[in-house]
């Protein structure tokens, strides 16, 4: 069986990027171990602070952020980081070549119910003679050199792309390695499963209302098939299900937000998931454009997300 280091060694991944990926994934194993202890370690519940986006931080949002930040800072290849839980980008090593944006813990509302959560990361090659600034990192998602997530579910899994397809690794706790278990994942173009938070229905645009109405009506409406619905409340879990068995995921913008930006964050949620989906033969769009083409304007920018089975994303966009 191949493990992560075998796969990276046999690919054209530069040594410095290998180092960043190794540090990131090893820290995720530490996060996974902390999550396993749950209440026993006194790490559940609220941290008592808000992040820059006005969300109440959980203790584990802060703990996992600090673990990743400390580990990546110690890696000479890292030029700077951006995180959901950091107000600004944090310059690390001026000589470093890589910028890492991450969501240290995705699905925070699942922590206290012992349900699925994960860590999402997005990596860019970026060099310069001065310490990094935020402007240096406003790079479109199509420039990502690697992206992935670690899912903390019944087993801990790493899902990774370095631009040559998508591989899934399962963490082997006996040998402390990520073992390759699913190679070159492909998302079927058709699906009969969708994911959306229906409680926002009355705030959606007319086009999303009409599209979802037709999914729900299935064969009794305009569609030739019926649809099932799932919602994990952690993007990482919903995207993982789509990579495993297909589907379409939507977090559209809605009228609660006058800026019509959506909820999910471009740089550490939408972009890495969009790269994974495209590498697996799926699609990832906003209401109007390919996510990976967006020129970011801020590190914590939000964006509408419609991703998954290629034909279903296309269908949604016709509304
Ligand atoms: P985070 O926990 O990192 O702030 O992200 C939560 C996001 C995403 O994971 C998920 O798809 C979505 O919020 C869930 O939103 P609802 O609360 O509307 O279900
Ligand atoms: Mn959050
Ligand atoms: Mn998140
Ligand atoms: Mn988060």
From TrEMBL:
Question: Which superkingdom?
Answer: Bacteria
**InterPro entries xref list:** FBPase_C_dom, FBPase_class-1, FBPase_N, FBPtase
Quote the cofactor binding remark.
Binds 2 magnesium ions per subunit.
Output the Pfam families linked to this UniProt entry: FBPase (PF00316), FBPase_C (PF18913)
What metabolic or biological pathway is this protein involved in?
Carbohydrate biosynthesis
Q: Which residues form the Fructose-1-6-bisphosphatase class 1 C-terminal domain?
A: 187-317
**Which UniProt keywords are present, listed alphabetically?**
Carbohydrate metabolism, Cytoplasm, Hydrolase, Magnesium, Metal-binding
Q: Where in the cell is it found?
A: Cytoplasm
User: What Enzyme Commission number(s) appear in the record?
Assistant: 3.1.3.11
Residues binding Mg(2+) 2? 103, 106, 269
Where do the annotations place substrate binding?
A: 106-109, 197, 263
PANTHER family per UniProt: FRUCTOSE-1,6-BISPHOSPHATASE-RELATED (PTHR11556), SEDOHEPTULOSE-1,7-BISPHOSPHATASE, CHLOROPLASTIC (PTHR11556:SF35)
* Subunit structure, interactors included: Homotetramer.
NCBIfam families attached to this UniProt entry? PRK09293.1-3 (NF006779), PRK09293.1-4 (NF006780)
Q: Which family does it belong to?
A: Belongs to the FBPase class 1 family.
Q: What is this protein called?
A: Fructose-1,6-bisphosphatase class 1
- Provenance organism: Marinomonas vulgaris
What does UniProt list as this organism's lineage?
Bacteria, Pseudomonadati, Pseudomonadota, Gammaproteobacteria, Oceanospirillales
- Report the gene name: fbp
